[in-house]
């Protein structure tokens, strides 16, 4: 399973890189705004900085919703760095754009997936990744993990190369469930990844080892 970090914060990205487990980054306009990144020139500069930190795919989300705007923005992002993946919304024009990008050899991430049918359409159009939103489905009383399972099964049935990128992953149990189901990628905040480090028995055991060492060695 690949670990992507869902942020535009350079410090968090660097910390994930230093941990040695980071495979990529996903971003969106909201995350850019959270970091105070405004204006296309500043956004492009920020993406370059992210790509310089990460040896892996970096999803850059288009703002446009019309086909021509999606193509224009996507091609601009794709020219920025080889690691860039164009993040496209699950809409009619978005699917058309994914087909276009696929034929041009430009990697894509189809975002805002909330049904297996949407994921299937994106895969047929040639998406590199599909991003089903686990947490947002859970928020409305639906089963986000069931959707991950459905998509994994469908792609396996027909041999699609499109990778299942579980998004809106909120906590460690989400991540572990995605791993059990067989999602190709999870994207989540840094605290979810570092949360995998923690277990009370590890803390207790380490404290005991250190106490015993101190007794023996003074």
TrEMBL record:
Subcellular localization: Cytoplasm
SUPFAM superfamilies associated with the record: Aldolase (SSF51569)
Domain of life according to the entry: Bacteria
Presence of the UniProt keyword Nucleotide-binding in the record: no
Entries under InterPro entries matching the protein: Aldolase_TIM, TAL/FSA, Transaldolase_3B, Transaldolase_3B/F6P_aldolase, Transaldolase_AS, TSA/FSA_arc/bac
CDD domains: Transaldolase_FSA (cd00956)
HAMAP family assigned: Transaldolase_3b
Functional note: Transaldolase is important for the balance of metabolites in the pentose-phosphate pathway.
Family: Belongs to the transaldolase family. Type 3B subfamily.
Record protein name field: Probable transaldolase
Species lineage: Bacteria, Pseudomonadati, Bacteroidota, Cytophagia, Cytophagales
GN (gene name): tal
């Amino acid at each position: 399973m690949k670990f992507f970090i869902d942020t535009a914060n350079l410090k968090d990205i660097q910390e994930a890189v230093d941990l040695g487990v980071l495979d990529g980054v996903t971003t969106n306009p909201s995350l850019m705004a959270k970091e105070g990144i405004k204006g296309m020139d500043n956004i492009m500069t920020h993406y370059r900085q992210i790509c310089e930190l990460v040896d892996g795919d970096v999803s850059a989300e288009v703002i446009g919703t019309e086909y021509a705007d999606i193509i224009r923005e996507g091609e601009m992002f794709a020219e920025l760095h080889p690691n860039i993946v164009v993040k496209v919304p699950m809409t009619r024009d978005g699917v058309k754009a994914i087909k276009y990008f696929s034929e041009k050899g430009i990697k894509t991430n189809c975002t805002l997936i909330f049904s297996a049918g949407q994921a299937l359409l994106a895969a047929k159009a040639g998406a590199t990744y599909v991003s089903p939103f686990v947490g947002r489905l859970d928020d409305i009383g639906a089963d986000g993990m069931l959707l991950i399972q459905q998509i994994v099964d469908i792609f396996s049935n027909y041999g699609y190369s499109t990778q299942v990128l579980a998004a809106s992953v909120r906590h460690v149990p989400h991540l572990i469930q995605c791993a059990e189901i067989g999602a190709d990628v999870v994207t989540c905040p840094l605290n979810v990844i570092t949360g995998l480090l923690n277990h009370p028995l590890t803390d207790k055991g380490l404290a005991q080892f250190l106490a015993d060492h101190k007794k023996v060695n003074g």
